[in-house]
Fold:
Amino acid sequence: IDRGPDSFGVVELVRTSDRIHSIIGNHEMIMQHAILTEGERRGFWLRVGGDETMDSIPCEGDELEAMAIELCEFFSTLPAEVILRGHRIVHGGYDPTIPPEDHTKHQVMTVRSVFSATSPIDECRQVVVGHTPVQNDLVPSDSNSAWKSGVILPDGRPSVICIDTGIYLKDRHQPRLTALNLLDGSIVYQPRVEPTTG
Structure:
């Protein structure tokens, strides 16, 4: 949410499609705290994109608040990680000093230390993350393409791949969406179409 002109439309697409599977990320978690805890974090959330999210909901007044609560309840149904035969998919990542199964939901949504891993997080699975744009100084890369770890799994794949290519960043960063085909490892990029706001 809060990274484009139609957050509500995107969430509705995910909610109503049986072909789309999603995980919860830190922005959905922030929205839940802002909406469901009597506004204690609401000002912060509104400053980091919540205002655009609320503007995208086609309701006003009490209906708007009710729909925001409904979205937060939907977010509660989303997993924080998906573990498949060959992949672990999380929003933030894993701390390489902690076994993956010992991480909390909050950690896998917010951790950024996956980029410093010197051995595989999971010997059998590639870890797919977002959360940290590859244009960020925390990512050891000089590219705006998907980041691939130099730590290699026994099957030859990079142990970690980051597919956050900064869709919300300014144009000079070449913002785009990135999709990873889990079946063959191919990557597809879609440059941002809308101009940046704010």
Q: What stands out?
A: Residues 81 and 187 are 21 Å apart (CA to CA).
